[in-house]
Amino acid sequence: MEHDTLKQLGLSENEIKVYIALLEIGTSKVEAISKRVPLPRTTIYGILKSLLEKGLCSYVIKASIKYYEAADPKRLLLIEQEKVQALQKVIPTLEKIKETVAEKPTVVMYEGKAGIKSIYEDMLKTKQTIYGYGNTKLLFELLQYYVPNYIKRRAKEGIKFCVVTEKSKISIEMQKNDIKEKRETKFLYQMKETTIATYIYGNKLAIATLIKKEPVGVIIENKEFSNSQKIIFDLMWKIAKK
Which of 77, 16, 84, 3 is nearest to 50 (CA)? Predict the structure, then answer.
C-alpha cells in the first residue's frame, strides 16, 4: 500500500526503495544503502540527488564522507496537497519504521534558499521560545517574500522571539511591531558586520549563512551546544540596547 501511495506523488519505484531503506537504517553512507537496495552505486547516487531535490532526504558530512538521512515523513504532505487523505494512511507506517532507528543524527545540513526555509519551518515545528542574533537586513534581502509570512505564522502560534540585531531601517521598523508579533528586539552595532544568523530553541541550535549566492545552514540537536550558545546570547542581550 505504501508503494502505491508514494507512486501517486510521482516517486519512482527505486526512489521509494531508497527512501524506505533510509528510514529503516537511519543515517548511513551510500555503501550501507546499496546493501539494502540492490542497485549500482552510481544509480543510488542519482536517486539520492533526486530525493534531495524533492526535500525527502538530507545529508551531513563527517570526515569528508556524506551520510544520508530520510526526511521526516510528514514532508511528503508538501509535495501534493490534494493527496493528503491518501498520505495520511501511509505516514503512520513510515513513522513507525523511522522510530525503530536507535541512533538519530545530531547535525543536519541544508543548502540553498529552500534549505534555509526548512530551518525556519523547524523553529515553528518545535514551538519553543527562539533566541537569535544576526543581521536582519540581510535576512530580508535573502528571503524577502518568505520572512514576513513566517513572522505572521510564528506570532499566530504564540512563539516568542528574542533577537539581537543591527540597527537598520528595516530592523527599526520591525521593532515597532514587537508586541503584535510576539518579539523583543535589541540592537548591537556589531551585528552589522555578520553574515550569519544564529538561533537557539529548545535543545536545538541553528546556524544559517545569509549570503545570496550559496546560502547554507545546519541544525544541531544537542543540549550542550544549545546551552552554551544561550549563555553567549544572554551576554549579548545584557549589553544590547533597545
Answer: 16
Residue 201: count of CB within 10 angstroms of its CB: 23
18: which 3 cell numbers? 531508497
Which residue intervals of 9-54 are DSSP H helices? 13-25, 30-36, 41-53
Give, in words, the CATH class of 107-239: alpha beta
Q: What's the CA gap between 186 and 165, in Å, rounded?
A: 6
List pLDDT tens digits, range 97-121. Answer: 776 654 455 889 999 999 999 999 9
Q: Which of 227, 109, 210 is nearest to 165 (CA)?
A: 210
Question: Residue 84 has what pLDDT?
Answer: 64
Domains 2-99 and 107-239 share a fold: no
Q: Quick one: CA dihedral 64, 70, 52, 205, positive or negative?
A: negative
The model scores a pTM over 0.90:
no
Q: Name residue 33's amino acid.
A: I
What CA dihedral angle connects 95, 219, 217 and 74, to 10 degrees?
20
Say which residue the cell 536507535 belongs to: 102
* Lookup: cell for 44: 543510488
How do beta strands 161-165 and 183-187 pair? Answer: parallel
- 155: phi then psi, degrees, rounded to nearest 5: -65, -40
- Compute the C-alpha angle 163/190/132, nearest 5°: 20
Distance of CA 92 to the CA centre of its chain: 22
Which stretches of the chain score pLDDT less than 50? Answer: 82, 102-103
Q: What ranges do the domains of the chain cover?
A: 2-99, 107-239
- CATH number for the domain formed by residue range(s) 2-99: 1.10.10.10
Buried b (16+ CB within 10 A) or exposed e, 139-149: bbebbeebbee
